[in-house]
Amino acid sequence: MTKRFRLLPLLAAGAALTVATAAGERAVAQDIKIGSVLSATGPASFLGAPEEKTLRLYVDTINAEGGILGKKLVLVVYDDGGDPSKARTFAGRLVDEDRVTAMVGGTTSGTSLAMAPIFEDARVPFISLAGAVEIIEPVRKYVFKTPHTDRMACEKIFGDLKARGLVKIGMISGTDAFGKSMREQCLKVADKYGVTILADESYSAQDSDMTPQLTNIKNTPGIQAVVNPGFGQGPAIVTRDYRQIGVAVPLYESHGVASKSYIQLAGPAADGVRLPAAALLVAEQLPKDDAQRPVVVGYKQTYEKATGEPVSTFGGHAYDGLFILVDAMKRAGGADPTKVRDEIEKTTHFTGTGGMFNMSPTDHLGLDLSAFRMLEIRNGDWYLAQGDR
């Protein structure tokens, strides 16, 4: 037993040497290897597929233009199918076998939270593409994200509700990681906006009929609007059932449905739905002097021409994550993970599809509420809601 304990300092030193050696290998590699674990298939594929297409498209473009500091970017992608356990396994593979310099990925909140400790322990920068605020709060030194948080979504929705005089609401939330997190955030900030939650229902990813929960909300006296924290197919089912049973008050969804897939799944029932989302979905509607317009119009045109598919905010999150990383590597003068991490944290005045990013040691997102636009679906398309221009 004594001998075993005597070995511990040596083992710790060996582990530290292994991490340092791995970091050195990444720094001197001829090519710059970056990783990505995405939900390109499975229930979150409508988020993950455009993320993967975006990363591949722009990595190819960067390499065709000479790479980064004269080095080629090598993108290593794994598909977790939306499974946090698989995501964690792939994260370990990226660190231990692929020796990536950094990671841009993590489609869902559940998979991102499963992977974060792996990259944090390995001291490899991880830029998540998921929404839950828990990904960056409390701050982890090596973990960042690009999408607006679920708390921001609650605040944007509640601000719009207050402006409309609709402060008594019902909520119906998904039980996935994002749905749970956003529900909790909405409960926390409701008082700040004078919002009272009169009904609080939920549904699982396996539910195909939400009429019982929605009927409970409909029959709750005083309900003036309904908010649905969730992503995936669930919100589309909620929207169809909502119209079918004749709920007459306004319906708000989260930015987790900011894709044409939601409109297609919900059909005509989506008309009138409001949600907070990035400016990307209404790129051509932005004023000519809007600082984001050149970025979002450029990405939209490039993506749609290359894929033949409508743009989504999820691909935009990948675009932002990739170019925040690229800019950081340029400022760092190479691919040393620690130096790259430091430069990511120093990101300021970076105009992306999600807004103007200004990160700091205490803020590993760097977006404020002004980065969100309130949208309304009309005739199967996105429009800026009245008053949000």
3D architecture notes:
This protein is an alpha/beta fold and 389 residues long. It has two domains: 2-148 and 296-371, 3-Layer(aba) Sandwich (Rossmann fold), CATH 3.40.50; 150-277, 3-Layer(aba) Sandwich (Rossmann fold), CATH 3.40.50.2300. The protein is 44% helix and 16% strand. The protein contains twelve helices and 14 strands. The strands form four sheets. Strands 2-1-3-4-5 form a five-stranded parallel β-sheet, with helices on both faces. A four-stranded parallel β-sheet has the order 7-6-8-9, sandwiched between helices. The protein has a three-stranded antiparallel β-sheet with strand order 10-13-14. Strand 13 (373-378) and strand 14 (381-384) form a beta hairpin. The chain is globular, with a radius of gyration of 22 Å.
